[in-house]
Amino acid sequence: MGELNTIGLDLAKNVFQAHGADIAGAVVFRKQLRRDKVLTFLAGQPACLVAMEACSGAHYWAREIGKLGHTVRLIPPAYVKPFVKRQKNDMADAEAICEAAQRPTMRFVPVKSEDQQASAVVFRVRDLLVRQRTQLITALRGHLAEYGLVVAKGPSNIAMLVELAQAAETGLSAAARPALDFLIATLRMVSEQIKQLDAEIARRAREEDDARRLMTIPGVGPITATALIALAPDASGFKRGRDFAAWLGLTPLQRSTGGKQKLGATSKMGERTLRRLLIIGASAVVKQARHRGAPQGSWLARMLARKPPMLVMVALANKMARIVWALMAKGGIYKAPAVTA
Question: What is the DSSP letter of 110?
């Protein structure tokens, strides 16, 4: 048994599992640790590589363990799974993390700072509130439809929906009105909270130089720009724009074999929030181009002429992701390409 080189740490709520190995991969120790004993135990170990899965709480533990002098690596859970031998348990997981961290070609997740995590919280909370607002609108629309009151879909018709629910001549049951009033009050409260978060995001976009540069890209607004800064890792971690697009899940699946390239549907294996925001931005650009027309001879005009609109939206989102990487890695602002005659 050699000197300690790598520690695989399987995170949990209360009881953590640690697996220590030397440079050859031989077992040095296997140990269970209570949550309040983790840092004390690691402080007594020689400086080494500590690996964990990139899961809930991983970034906090990575920062705290890094302060002890250890080198910390976070590994995507999907890359650890192939190293788990037969039965899945905490001991096997910790050993798999340790073994995966020693692979020379392993890919790691950058550790987020407290500011990055705080910015991410803003977007996660906003997404939750937007989903709750949609649920409230759908519930109100469904209850009114039971009384024969139907309003067209869309955010612009919410006011009409509320007006029908509160009107005295609509014939709504007196017993149902208090419940509908509760829905309307909750809807207004959630909408106001979303406005406050939007204002905070807009403020950050104005103050961040990188966000202002990203907003020069067509289809990228304050929400998308600040989300890219908060949720995306350092651009220097990707060799090229395609790698960043693949990380977002905007590249096609590959089933290539025997020298034959076979590409499938979009992988969707990546950061869901950023992928969704880029596709929404791309859809706005495509819709505008379809109504007002794209510059003749441009990439977008050629794509719309021969491909379905939804396919063009995803392809444009892929293109936008590559432009985002270029601006974040090399600086500068977006400049529209020259259109050939």
Answer: P
The pair of three-digit structure tokens given for residue 2, joined into one six-digit string: 């050699």
pLDDT tens digits, residue range 6-61? 999 999 999 999 999 999 989 999 999 999 999 999 999 999 999 999 998 999 99
Which element (helix H / strand E) includes 180?
A: helix 177-207
* Torsion region of 331: left, alpha or beta (phi above 0 gives left; psi -120 to 50 gives alpha): left
Give the per-residue pLDDT at 7.
96
The whole-number pLDDT of residue 341 equals 53
Place of tokens 């899965």: 53
| 226 contacts 208 by C-beta, under 8 angstroms | yes
Nearest to 182 by CA among 140, 142, 150, 134: 140
Single-letter amino acid code for the residue at 239: K
What does residue 50 show for φ and ψ, rounded to 5 degrees?
Answer: -110, 120
Question: Which among 239, 242, 250 is positioned nearest to 272, based on CA atoms?
Answer: 250
Q: Token pair for residue 157?
A: 């018709």
Task: Identify the three-state secondary structure at position 106.
Answer: coil
The C-alpha angle with vertex 47 and arms to 44 and 48, in degrees rounded to 5, equals 115
Contact 91, 18 (CB under 8 A): no
Q: Which amino acid is at 69?
A: G
Contact 317, 232 (CB under 8 A): no
Query: CA-CA distance, 38 to 17, in Å (whole number)?
Result: 10
Q: Where are the alpha helices (DSSP H) in the chain?
A: 38-43, 58-66, 77-80, 90-101, 114-145, 158-166, 177-207, 209-214, 222-231, 241-248, 272-292, 299-306, 309-330
177-207 and 222-231 helices cross at what angle (nearest 10)? 70
Encode pLDDT of 200-225 as tens digits: 999 988 888 889 999 999 999 999 99
> pTM for the whole thing?
0.81
By residue count, the chain amounts to 341
For residue 240, report the phi and psi dihedrals to the nearest 5 degrees: -150, 170
